[in-house]
């Protein structure tokens, strides 16, 4: 299979795999490390994760803003180095205040790294960015699974020392991807091309004159349309909280499904993403197709909510069938939305401020990670009607987003023609 972006595209996929494998080592054991090694209480762990998550929200806009002003490759490597240093620093102390500061720094680097990696992929993959995103998500899921399996095997030893080794492995993974990033080439920068009057492949865009003053870069914080789009996308990212929080909690508290069957629903999600994310890339190949995909995305959200509502009635077999249908529907929604979100967030961003705009869009996921668990647990508390309401609300938001971007084909959606250069 040919990877968009050539050599650098392949190297960034290696970066993604190593990154997610390391994160899989730590993600499954972070709470246990802070409990058994650092000796923190449950309240302290909650505060630690809450504050670090709040600080991390600043990562995407800050990283995106810097990416429009400095070379992307060394910036991304520096952020990954920050993550490595923060992980290693956790091993040096059990003081709550120091752990709080270190965790916050790591969260800031983690969120910034996410948007910078997306920006790098967007620049090297060019018009094939939707397909690259699909391959990247597949590799990401495989990496997470590998890291999680290694962590599970390591924890079977039953010693606290294993937590330190897993954290060390996480830190080394960040150091490794920093080195891998430095081996990649610097991708073409649309903002630098436009500012200097250069012409990318297929752009047909030239400067008004060498002596003409450069126009100020667009400001995403003043772009009401992009801010509204980001707000709607924050809602559509709720599929993440449905899988991380809602599905398992609902299954064990409101349905007769045996507890041991619940992990199989999460495995089903992972398998479907690995198998079908790349074929689903065709739904976001162009901005027009991405907009059209918002209709089936709405149907998938509605079906998932209805299936979760139906799972609370009947026998264990009916509950299993309904929960399986819900897992499939929300996985389809996850794959469709990942494709649509990647394409529209880039297509709506002006070429001279692509990094800043994608940084603002990164707030959508950050906001969802903070508010999503509250929304999902609220739906659980409301019972079957809560899931019906959530599914309906997500479907309505899909239609609202389609209306919000309805004239993109004639305006901002033409951006791909002037944001890439021959690689």
Topology:
Blueprint: H1 6-27, H2 30-36, H3 42-56, H4 59-67, H5 72-90, H6 96-125, H7 129-155, H8 161-182, H9 190-196, H10 224-236, H11 239-254, H12 262-276, H13 287-310, H14 316-347, H15 354-382, H16 384-404
Helix pairs in contact: 1-6, 1-7, 1-8, 3-6, 4-6, 4-15, 5-6, 5-8, 6-15, 7-12, 7-14, 10-15, 10-16, 11-12, 11-14, 11-15, 12-14, 13-14, 13-16, 15-16
Give a structural overview:
With 423 residues, the protein is mainly alpha-helical. It is 73% helix and 0% strand. It has helices at residues 6-27, 30-36, 42-56, 59-67, 72-90, 96-125, 129-155, 161-182, 190-196, 224-236, 239-254, 262-276, 287-310, 316-347, 354-382, 384-404. Helix 5 (72-90) packs antiparallel against helix 6 (96-125), helix 7 runs antiparallel to helix 12 (262-276) and helix 13 packs antiparallel against helix 14 (316-347). The longest helix has 32 residues, at 316-347. It is globular. The two termini are 18 Å apart. The model is unreliable at 193-212 and 408-423 (pLDDT under 50).
């Amino acid at each position: 299979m040919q990877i968009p972006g050539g050599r650098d595209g392949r190297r960034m996929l290696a970066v993604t795999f190593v990154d997610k494998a390391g994160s899989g080592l730590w993600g499954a054991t972070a709470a246990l490390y802070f409990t058994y090694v650092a000796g923190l209480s449950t309240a302290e762990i909650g505060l630690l994760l809450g504050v670090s998550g709040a600080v991390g929200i600043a990562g995407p806009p800050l990283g995106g803003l810097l990416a429009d002003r400095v070379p992307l490759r060394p910036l991304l490597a520096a952020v990954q180095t920050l993550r490595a240093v923060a992980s290693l620093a956790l091993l040096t102390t059990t003081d709550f205040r120091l752990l709080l500061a270190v965790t916050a720094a790591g969260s800031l680097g983690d969120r910034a790294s996410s948007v910078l990696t997306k920006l790098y992929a967007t620049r090297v993959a060019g018009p094939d960015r939707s397909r690259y995103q699909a391959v990247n998500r597949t590799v990401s899921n495989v990496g997470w699974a590998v890291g999680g399996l290694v962590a599970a095997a390591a924890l079977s030893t039953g010693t606290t020392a294993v937590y330190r080794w897993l954290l060390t492995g996480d830190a080394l993974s960040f150091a490794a991807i920093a080195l891998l990033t430095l081996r990649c080439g610097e991708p073409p920068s649309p903002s630098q091309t436009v500012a200097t009057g250069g012409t990318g492949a297929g752009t047909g865009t030239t400067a008004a004159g060498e002596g003409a003053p450069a126009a100020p870069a667009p400001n995403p914080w003043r772009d009401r349309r992009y801010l509204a789009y980001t707000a709607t996308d924050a809602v559509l990212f709720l599929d993440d909280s449905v899988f991380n929080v809602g599905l398992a909690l609902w299954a064990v508290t409101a349905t007769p499904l045996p507890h041991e069957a619940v992990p199989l629903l999460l495995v089903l999600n992972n398998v479907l993403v690995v198998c079908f994310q790349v074929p689903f890339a065709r739904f976001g190949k162009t901005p027009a197709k991405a907009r059209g995909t918002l209709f089936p995305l709405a149907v998938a959200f509605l079906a998932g909510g209805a299936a979760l509502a139906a799972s609370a009635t009947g026998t264990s077999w009916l509950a299993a069938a309904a929960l399986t249908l819900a897992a499939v529907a929300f996985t389809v929604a996850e794959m469709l939305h990942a494709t649509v979100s990647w394409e529209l967030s880039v297509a709506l961003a002006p070429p001279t401020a692509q990094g800043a705009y994608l940084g603002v869009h990164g707030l959508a996921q950050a906001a969802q990670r903070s508010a999503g668990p509250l929304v999902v647990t609220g739906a659980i508390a409301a019972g079957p009607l809560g899931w019906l309401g959530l599914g309906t609300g997500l479907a309505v938001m899909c239609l609202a987003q389609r209306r919000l971007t309805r004239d993109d084909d004639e305006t901002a959606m033409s951006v791909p023609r002037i944001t890439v250069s021959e690689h």
